[in-house]
Amino acid sequence: xxxxxxxxxxxxxxxxxxxxxxxxxxxxxxxxxxxxxxxxxxxxxxxxxxxxxxxxxxxxxxxxxxxxxxxxxxxxxxxxxxxxxxxxxxxxxxxxxxxxxxxxxxxxxxxxxxxxxxxxxxxxxxxxxxxxxxxxxxxxxxxxxxxxxxxxxxxxxxxxxxxxxxxxxxxxxxxxxxxx
Length: 180
What we know:
1 helix, 5-stranded antiparallel beta sheet, flat, 13 strands
């Protein structure tokens, strides 16, 4: 009876213990936000059961407080850029985030999110069905020029029916602009 109990106890404990070994976190490269007391870093959390998710940490170097900006599952940070234009009063963080959904894809569609330098406010500026190819910030006007395409059939792939577009977004006014 003791042997049966020992065998049963081992059979129950071993799988439970094995699950915890895959839970861990890593931090990405640190980036100083010039002219502020903030430093940012990405944080990746891995779990055997829930997969991988990625967050952005805004670290206040004066107080030691950390503000964590969480993205939904299956969204991963591709690029982070600090835009500071003193003449226009612009001080923002641009985050290019991949949106792979629940699919395994070779080309992950990207979205653009704007955050304040302390991480307190974030706003996704591109529609969920618009996929970003590239973007650039005009330092003279504070306008982001974004190229990409509208996924008209919602299949998360670039095909002939998708419409290429150019978007303009004002960092000063925090709104999309009309193209004429």
